[in-house]
Amino acid sequence: MIATAAPSPCARHARRTVLSSFLAVLLLGATAAVSPRPALARGPDGIADVAEKVIDAVVNISTSQTIEAKGGGEGRGGAVPQLPPGSPFEEFFEDFFKNRRGPGGKGGGELQPRKTNSLGSGFIVDTSGIVVTNNHVIADADEINVIMNDGTKIKAEIVGVDKKTDLAVLKFKAPKELVAVKFGDSDKLRLGDWVIAIGNPFSLGGTVTAGIVSAKNRDISSGPYDSYIQTDAAINRGNSGGPLFNLDGEVIGVNTLIISPSGGSIGLGFAVPSKTVAGVVDQLRQFGELRRGWLGVRIQPVTDEIADSLSIKPARGALIAGVDDKGPAKPAGIEPGDVVVKFDGKDIKEPKDLSRIVADTAVGKEVEVIVIRKGEEQTLKVTLGRLEDTDKAQPAAIKKDEPADKPVTQKALGLDLASLSKDLRSKYKIKDSVKGVIVTGVDASSDAADKHLSAGDVIVEVAQEAVANAADIKKRIDTLKKDGKKTVLLLVANGDGELRFVALALQ
User: Fold this and answer.
1) How much is the pLDDT for 32?
2) Which of 65, 412, 476, 478 is the most buried (most CB within 10 A)?
3) pLDDT of res. 299
């Protein structure tokens, strides 16, 4: 018999602790084995139901285009590649290039036209056969076909396109009863909401991916009205033009592009929001073109320095840098230097907001515009015109007092200033309609140089007051310094009369 020492109280306590921990682990393991995974780990239950309900409304868009390939002799695209003598590929390349030529053979014949094909996705929004897709999917196509989820192929024609939002509307004759989807309200999306991307990229049937809304109102500088929904739902090649759904089966976006070095999804997909899409689709169906609102102004951001000089806190809105003589803004009383902070009841935080809202507003509608002018809010009414894509609105020529007959020169703010004369107009190519004080030199170490002012620029206003000669500028600056101002706002024109605001430090 082997004797053993009785365990001490400390040892007994330690063993009980270990045993309790072991039992706890067993119990937790058993619970984990029988408990379902958390909902967030497997996604919402409704994805399959949504996909089943809407997938027949998602179609493949197949296009073909004939490319005229011209060339001959040793010209571009016409010569047989030069290979080492005896290369096993020599005969292959010679036959390949001969077969691509016309009657001239390898001597100087024309390359034959060739067809290229591309694939994308789209979705049916009307059972009469109306399809929405991306413009880049069907651009320059000679033939467009819609391929249904069951493989049925039907020729389609273009109703209208909008290049600025990269959207297109097609129509086709429905061979049978169709399934159509409806637009939801993209403004109600929240960050983290689940979304479902469905595409039909290779006419093999719909493909479904899911993810969340990663960001809203993304501006990636791809167009003038960027306001994308960003999602990590996988969007791959051929999914362009397909719909992005919410969990109610409503289209809340059109999958348009991805950012990826490999061409595959890395979680950076972008969709045009349904609020934009629905308006574009309605106009294309009604008019075959877009009829956007037009205000007739040039705008620029309100920087912190500009906001300080205009007594605007916090910095916000769109600064009016120029007003078109023939635009709706001028008769409404909108002036350069005004800061638009609200348009048609919608807040304007930055210039892009104003561009988008004006474009989305109906032509001919009278709207209220709230501007900040010299530190005070004013409400104006303007009736919108129609934006013509081919017209580039020029800012109005600001009529100010003529400069003094005798030129006056001054130095201020790191600038060499002079009254405009015929000689200076000729030297710097300044139009007669441009009035103000010309910059003839800039100190390279000054704030003015950092803000890209240069010789030939014309200062039209200082602190929203017109200046006619260099002495006027010096007086205005001295007054502002006495008033304790830290910055001064200049309205600057180039030789053609295009205006911009520049805020300079007074120190």
Assistant:
1) 43
2) 412
3) 92
Give the pLDDT confidence score for residue 3 in this predicted structure.
39
| Active-site annotation holds for 136 | yes
Each residue's pLDDT tens digit, 404-452: 344 456 688 888 899 888 889 999 999 988 989 999 999 888 888 888 8
Q: Are residues 222 and 193 in the same domain?
A: yes
Please indicate, yes or no, whether residues 273 and 321 belong to a single structural domain of this protein: no
Is 452 a residue of the active site?
no
Residue 453 domain boundaries: 409-505
Judgement on whether residues 273 and 312 belong to the same structural domain of the protein: no
Count structural domains, the chain: 3
d(CA 484, CA 425): 35
Of the residues 62, 121, 136, 274, only one is catalytic, namely 136
Residue of 323, 326, 314, 328 whose CA lies nearest to 366: 328
Q: Could you tell me the two tokens for 370?
A: 């709230």
In a domain, 414, yes or no: yes
Euclidean distance between CA atoms 68 and 301, whole angstroms: 45
What does the alpha-carbon distance between residue 211 and residue 192 come to, in Å, rounded to a whole number? 9
- Is residue 147 one of the residues assigned to a domain? no
Indicate which residue of 62, 121, 162, 166 is catalytic: 166
**Cα atoms in the 13 Å half-sphere on the side-chain side of 22:** 6
246-255, 448-457, 481-490, range with the lowest pLDDT: 481-490
- CA dist 247 → 131, 185, 340 (Å): 21, 12, 37
Residue 55 domain flag: no
308 and 274 in a common domain: no
Q: Are residues 474 and 447 in the same domain?
A: yes
Buried b (16+ CB within 10 A) or exposed e, 290-311: bebbbbbbbbbebbebbbbbbe
For the domain that residue 494 is a member of, what is the CATH number? 2.30.42.10
**Average pLDDT taken over every residue of the chain:** 80
Residues 314 and 337 in one domain: yes
Burial of 45 (0-12, 13-18, 19+ CB in 10 A): exposed
Is 247 domain-assigned? yes
Quick one: average pLDDT of 2-31? 41
Which pLDDT does position 87 carry in this prediction?
44
**Count of helix runs (H) and strand runs (E) in the chain:** 13, 27
95 is catalytic: no
Ranking 207-211, 414-418, 484-488 by mean pLDDT, the lowest is 484-488
